[in-house]
Write a structure and sequence with these properties.
By secondary structure, this protein is an alpha+beta fold. The protein contains five helices and two strands, in the order αβααααβ. 9% of the residues are buried.
Length: 110
């Protein structure tokens, strides 16, 4: 992504009052995120990072084979309580209460 396109996207988001995005994850992932940073599922696997993953096998398969390689992206939300948050807990993929990481727009990169 070119800098001008990045700036256009950030201006657009800020124009709608969006100053940050959110990443919802299991509390189990926090030590790894704190140590290694926030990575996509693909990067976690490629770099051999020991971390739980909020997605299940079907999610990972669909993300990898969708033709869009969604496993190469860190999934972010506009809301700290998106609908899938409760699904993570109910499915058992997120042990206990999920944690919500607030991500500033200044750290978004392509």
């Amino acid at each position: 992504m070119q800098q001008s396109e990045y700036n256009r996207i950030v201006r657009y988001l800020k124009g709608y009052g969006i100053n940050c995005l959110y990443h919802i994850t299991s509390r189990e992932n926090w030590p790894s995120i704190r140590t290694n940073g926030l990575f996509s599922a693909c990067q976690i696997e490629t770099n051999g990072i020991s971390a739980g993953n909020g997605s299940d096998k079907l999610d990972r398969y669909l993300n990898r084979h969708s033709g869009k390689r969604l496993d190469e992206y860190v999934h972010l939300s506009f809301s700290a309580k998106p609908p899938f948050r409760d699904r993570l807990v109910r499915s058992g993929r997120c042990k206990g209460e999920p944690i919500v990481l607030k991500v500033g727009l200044d750290v978004l990169i392509a």
